[in-house]
Every structure is written in C-alpha cells, then in structure tokens.
Amino acid sequence: KCRPGTADCAAGLVWGEPCGAGSFSDKPAASQCDKCAAGSFTNTTGSVSCTECAAGTAQNNTGSESCTACRKGAFSADKGASVCEDCAAGHYTDKTGSVS
Asked: Which of 10, 51, 59, 73 could be bridged to 67 by S-S, CB 3.0 to 4.6 A?
C-alpha cells in the first residue's frame, strides 16, 4: 500500500509519488492526490493534509501553495477564508492582512 502523502504506487511498493505542493493524500493506497480546498494550502510535497489560511488572509483557488494577505480596505476575521470581505460602509483599514 502507498503511504499517506503519496499516490500511484506500483504493485508492492510502499512509497508512491509524493503529492506535490498544493495537494495531499490522507489515505493509504490512494490512486491520486487531492487538491487543497479553497481557503487552505500546503507548500510542501508529501502532505497528508492542508492548512487553513490564517485570519487576515484568503485563497479562493483549489490546489494552492499559499494564501494571500487581504488588501487594504478588506479583511478576513476567521481562518480558512476563501475570500476577504470589504469593510462595511464608513469603515476602512489601511493595512494589508487585517482581521477586522
């Protein structure tokens, strides 16, 4: 069986091809690696899971290697955000990566 973090093993081997950055395999004997969901990432090969984007960052694509800091005027209060929210009318943040 392939070990978690790898996929596509030849018969009888325990190490398959390591999952590339942006993808993971959390099950033994996986035939393919899964892409990280939006709002998460992994920047290493052979991952068994993805990491949620930190508050103040977001990632709206699947299979990502990183998250992006929210732009000025936007924020993400929670980890795992796929998009940054615009500040409410009458409010503004002049920093990137804001959480409120």
From this structure: 59
